[in-house]
Amino acid sequence: LETAWSKLYPAKACEFVVQNAFDRIFLRNLFSRDELSVNFPSRMMFALFDFDEAFDDWNGLKKNCDIETDPCKGLVKQLKCKSHFAMLLPVPDVEELKRQVLDSTGKPWGKGSESHLSIELLFFKDELLGTWFKKKATSGGGELIEFTGDKVEFAKAFVPHLAKENFEHFRPLF
Fold first, then answer.
1. Which of 1, 85, 115, 170 has its CA 20 to 30 A from that of 18?
2. pLDDT truncated to tens, each residue of the chain (174 aa)?
3. SS3 sequence, the chain?
């Protein structure tokens, strides 16, 4: 996220602090607790979830209202505390990836186990198959694109060298 910000807004200081949340369950639990809204009622906070099994965690957070309903921009809802938000990764305009997350009407599959979009897939290109990604056969003749590399190495050694246009998916979230 910090790299995406610096690529998209190079002359502007980052307007937020990224706090590693360890995993989706920790993030869901943190944003479900009343203590967060009691102790930080005015602090703007957002939780960003991958659009995979974490969809169920995102979906389970109680909302005040929907802010963004277009999955290609990233689904965003305002939580009970009006300064806290929960977001899902934007779905790239890549047919193979859209099918992994959205049904034929453009709506998210009914549950997270049917969605497959980790943050690394926002950087997917066919030429990266075999190095960072692979195609996996699924029942019924389907196919999934999966990230297969080391997440930390990918984030530190590969992502920073990408051109600005590779980060445009993040712009609606920011």
1. 115
2. 999 999 999 999 998 888 888 899 999 999 999 999 999 999 999 999 999 999 999 999 999 999 999 999 999 999 999 999 999 999 999 999 999 999 999 999 888 889 999 999 999 999 999 999 999 998 888 899 999 999 999 999 999 999 999 999 999 999
3. CHHHHHHHCCCCCCCCCCCCCCCHHHHHHHHHCHHHHHHCCCCCEEEEECECCHHHHHHHCCEEEEEECCCCCCCEEEECCCCEEEEECCCCCCHHHHHHHECCCCCECCCHHHCCECHHHHHCCHHHECCCEEEEECHHHCEEEEECCCHHHHHHHHHHHCCHHHHHHHCCCC
